[in-house]
Amino acid sequence: MKRLTIREFNQRVISLVENIGLLVIGIATVFAMGAETMTMIRAMQVTLTDLLLLFLYLEVLAMVGLYYQSGKLPVRFPLYIGMVALARYLILDMKDMEDWRMLAVTGSILLLTLAVFLIRYGHVRFPYPGDDTADLRHADRQQD
Predict the structure, then answer these.
(1) Can you tell me the distance from the alpha carbon of 133 to that of 41, in angstroms, rounded to the nearest whole number?
(2) How far apart are alpha carbons 27 and 34 in whole angstroms?
(3) Closest among 32, 137, 15, 122 to 75, alpha carbons compared
(4) Is the separation of the CB atoms in 85 and 56 below 8 Å?
């Protein structure tokens, strides 16, 4: 029987904690989606803010699924979630919001959008060694 080194043991423990955390996040997200759906059914009304909230939940689930699938978490996903959350905040509180606050929120959304663009551009233009993006970039050029 092979003995584990301290490093291997630590890696297994961290992996187990990551998987438990992802499972908890996934279950909590599904539960929150169900609760929000029940709220919409009881109110017999669906608003744009409800849809944006459900979209946020889907983004969280997609992020968890991607992490399970690839073991990597693109920085873009939390940025997308932030953009949708800010848009939802803007829609919910627009009537009571001061002009400067609306400008600050829309400016924040713009900054997050630019960050996503720059990250995506850098990832496609300067891929990491051994990354699949180089193959995708080559396929995109062949389609053009």
Answers:
(1) 42
(2) 11
(3) 122
(4) yes
Mean pLDDT over 79-94 rounds to 91
Q: Name residues whose C-beta falls within 8 Å of residue 90's C-beta, 6 or more positions apart in sequence.
A: 97, 102, 105, 106, 109
pLDDT (tens digit per residue) in 18-75: 999 999 999 999 999 999 999 999 999 999 889 999 999 999 999 999 888 888 877 8
CA distance 28 to 8: 30
- Contact of 88 with 52, CB cutoff 8 Å: yes
Distances (CA, A) of 12 to 8, 20, 76, 84: 6, 12, 27, 35
pTM of the model as a whole:
0.73
In the chain, what are the domain boundaries? Answer: 1-73, 76-132
Give CA–CA dist 109/89, Å, rounded.
Answer: 11
Size of the chain, expressed as the number of residues it contains: 144
The yes-or-no verdict on residue 143 having pLDDT over 70 is: no
End-to-end CA distance of the chain: 56
